[in-house]
Amino acid sequence: MLTGLNHLTLAVRNIERSVDFYRQLLGFRLLASWDAGAYLSLGDLWLCLSLDPLRPEGPTPEYTHYAFSITQDNLDTLRRHLRDHGVTEWRQNRSEGDSVYFLDPDGHKFEAHVGDVRSRLAQCRIQPYSGMRFFE
């Protein structure tokens, strides 16, 4: 059956602009590119950018987003780096673990998060969400 997340594909309006964003601002490594796409990597993450001129501009109104792991020591550096490059922050952190929430050039929502599911669940055991149940 399933063993994990294989890759993430994002529809983008401009391949070159998106490749520059992921490489220059976030430190992804470019593996391959072609007229309508690119493959990049960050650690074990395989990211595919796929040209889609029908991709609406700007972020969607719902909460769906993708979170990267980061250490506390590096979070403020990333936050300043993103702000220095005019990257839009779309949300302020309201949960366990420090975070910065930001948009890519096509409005995809991202988060750089300090912590993991274990630290989140530990905090939730202290202050559970409404109706929360644990299954461990």
From TrEMBL:
<feature type="domain" description="VOC">
    <location>
        <begin position="4"/>
        <end position="115"/>
    </location>
</feature>
<dbReference type="InterPro" id="IPR004360">
    <property type="entry name" value="Glyas_Fos-R_dOase_dom"/>
</dbReference>
<protein>
    <submittedName>
        <fullName>Fosfomycin resistance glutathione transferase</fullName>
    </submittedName>
</protein>
<dbReference type="InterPro" id="IPR029068">
    <property type="entry name" value="Glyas_Bleomycin-R_OHBP_Dase"/>
</dbReference>
<dbReference type="InterPro" id="IPR037523">
    <property type="entry name" value="VOC_core"/>
</dbReference>
<dbReference type="Pfam" id="PF00903">
    <property type="entry name" value="Glyoxalase"/>
</dbReference>
<dbReference type="GO" id="GO:0016740">
    <property type="term" value="F:transferase activity"/>
</dbReference>
<dbReference type="InterPro" id="IPR050383">
    <property type="entry name" value="GlyoxalaseI/FosfomycinResist"/>
</dbReference>
<keyword id="KW-0808">Transferase</keyword>
